[in-house]
Design brief:
The chain is an alpha/beta fold. The protein contains eleven helices and 14 strands. It starts with 6 loop residues before the first strand and ends in a 7-residue tail after the last strand.
């Protein structure tokens, strides 16, 4: 527990998610100080350090771990490097915030979770969508039983290709690390899990529009206790569109990061009006508005607060591992064209 001291943070990876989100958000937190930046490209590490006024920069994690004493790191590297970096940090007593997915496979993700528990350190996964204030409100309404038994949750997340809108990293289109399912799927599946609990099985369908080596859009159906989740993800949209639907036996809630509508499921005209309104507004409102930035800021602030107060984060490593297991099952289902059961972790 660190109540008064500043939390010393270092950023591992100097790509788009680090420069557009993590570094600015940590710099805005009055209890955090960014001490160093690490990237395998030494020129990029130096350039980012200079841009944000960070005093130290490194081109390898080995040199960094041997040279800098920090309280926490933020991992912003490709998924296949997450486990090695996180386990090293956790075993050194360093708290970890890791971008999604938690790891490149369940085995490595489990190593991260076990290392965090063994050292009693914070391991938090970057599911920032849980922090949208409207989604938190929807979660609270559903949890209180105000819409009846939730039997169906839908979450739709449509984007442009990351190479066109977000990042130039080529691993997005590499088999095994890339594709709409592996990119957006962890967010989508975690949101379904957040509302419905532990996933039991998945059935996924996906395809491509252009000559892509990886899926460009995907639909996943997930089985839960007395409920079903439907997740839709795409790299083919001309605009970013995000919609959440929570269907209960009493009422239905529709939401996006910016607004929410509570409807009676028998009122067809009201439902039609909602669909027309969301389509219009989604095309007019740019993602650069404050809501996304605020969600990331709330995520970073929560991470720092958990370190200072000795609290368990939400989402934690187990949440990341369960989402990873669902993503792996969906990937297998996509390949086999059959339903696949999600690995069960006892007690979680």
């Amino acid at each position: 527990m660190i109540r008064n001291d500043i939390i010393r943070v270092s950023i591992i990876g100097a790509g788009a998610i680090a420069t557009k989100v993590h570094i600015p958000c940590f710099l805005r937190n009055k209890y955090a100080k960014v001490d160093a930046i690490v990237d395998i490209d030494p020129k990029k590490a130096e350039r980012v350090a200079r841009k944000f006024g960070i005093k130290r920069f490194f081109s390898s994690t080995d040199k960094f771990f041997d040279s800098v004493k920090v309280d926490a790191i933020s991992i912003c590297t490709p998924p296949d490097s997450h486990a090695e970096i996180a386990v090293e940090a956790l075993e050194r007593g360093i708290n970890v915030l890791c971008e999604k997915p938690l790891a490149d496979n369940i085995k490595n993700g489990l190593k991260m979770v076990e290392a965090a528990e063994g050292q009693d350190k914070v391991l938090m996964v970057g599911f920032h969508r849980r922090f949208y204030p409207i989604y938190l409100k929807v979660k609270s309404i559903a949890k209180e039983g105000k819409i009846g038994h939730v039997y169906l949750t839908e979450y739709l997340s449509l984007h442009q290709s990351p190479l066109l809108s977000w990042s130039k990293s080529q691993w997005y289109y590499q088999v095994g690390t890339g594709g709409s399912l592996l990119d957006i799927g962890p967010h989508v599946l975690d949101m379904l899990n957040w509302f419905l609990g532990r996933p039991y099985s998945v059935y996924a369908f996906g395809s491509v529009h252009s000559d892509s080596p990886v899926d460009e859009y995907c639909v996943v159906t997930v089985e839960y206790d007395y409920a079903v989740g439907v997740g839709v993800m795409s790299w083919l949209s001309s605009k970013k569109i995000e919609k959440l639907g929570i269907h209960g036996t009493g009422r239905t809630l529709y939401a996006s990061p910016r607004f929410m509508l509570d409807v009676n499921p028998t009122d067809v005209s009201e439902l039609s009006l909602w669909r027309a309104a969301t389509s219009t507004l989604a095309n007019k409102v740019k993602e650069a508005s404050g809501s996304q930035s605020n969600a990331f800021q709330l995520e970073i602030d929560h991470f720092i607060d958990c370190i200072k107060r000795g609290r368990k984060p939400s989402p934690n490593g187990w949440d990341g591992l369960i989402a990873l297991a669902a993503t792996e099952a969906a990937t297998e289902s996509l390949s086999k064209g059959t339903k696949v059961y999600v690995r069960n972790f006892a007690g979680h």
